[in-house]
Fold this sequence. Notes:
By secondary structure, this protein is of the alpha+beta class. The chain contains twelve helices and 16 strands.
Amino acid sequence: MKSLIRMRIARTIRQTLLQLALAASLLGTLPGAGLRSVAGEPPRVAAVLQPFVDSRTLAGAVTLVASKDKVLSLQAVGYADLAANKPMRTDALFWIASESKPMTATALMMLVDQGKVGLADPVEKYLPEFRGQMVAVERDSEHVLLRNATRPITVRDILSHTSGLPFTSPVEPRIDRRPLSEAVLSYALGPLNSQPGTRYQYSNAGINTAGRIIEVVSGIPYEVFMEQRLFRPLGMKDTTLWPSKSQLKRLAKSYKPDASKTELQETDIGQLTCPLDDRRRGPSPAGGYFSTARDMARFGQMLLNGGLLDGRRYVSAQAIREMTRKQTPDAIKDSYGLGWSVGAGSFGHGGAYSTNLTIDPQRQLVTVFMVQQAGYGGPDGPRILPAFMKAAQALQGR
Length: 398
């Protein structure tokens, strides 16, 4: 009993100290030891994360806050490599995982703008292998009962996770194991999990299928289209499916909570095949990209500017409105657009290792949160991203 009481007292003291540290950092009074930021910038934003680093809840992070036309804050906190005591740098590289999805959706909307793809079009119009799909209405270890789909899945369905396609297929133990054409063929050969348009099911398969449509319609490989039409013009020089050896030197180590949930342990990127610079790995439009905070901010600024950046138009304002409005039916509580999570006046997307990009048109802010953690240990983990967002929003009052 005494041991339990001591544990509760210690937890209360720890949470109180963390709250005081967060409040002090928001007021700009925290010294900010170990924080790195752009020249002359007070470490106000990343300072709110220092207590989480100190408590071993967070290994390290890069944070960026931008308006439509400039970077307001770019800072690093904590460590890129805990064992080597290597500080996090603002140019660190991260696997952004599912933050790849809105980039793929944006690229497909370029073809919609050109009239080459229609959102209401059946996927089978571009990929004939999807003709005649069936729906699994019963399933157990001994049988699967199939029925005809009430209608073909559409481009809108695959971008909004309402197609009925599964998260992945049995031939994909890792998301980069097969060429894109083979991966997408495996989705077409399997049954749907629900009738098209009736249920939200988060689906890598759907977004990968969108990537395959991009390369079939454009006539060039998916990754080439992304580089030529999006990344290179935007100056996103570190956004890649296959980081080079020099880029890999800047890749932040990946962590997850240990069994006790009180310490962090190094882990690998379990969904990808090593070595990461091996270009024989297949592209994954739904989750394969690596990037930096600066690169993701450029992408976010373009969207915040209605599809324009530095005098160049990438997508139409109408395309952005379509991507960022709720596309899931009213009967479905999940609020998802076309490649974007939407709600509360903003839109954005996260990644499997806790990265986050949010575009807030009301506040005219882009926020980029780059970490490399498969979850957080302890009770304070859920407070990390909200603490950053609160500090980022407070920059407008400077």
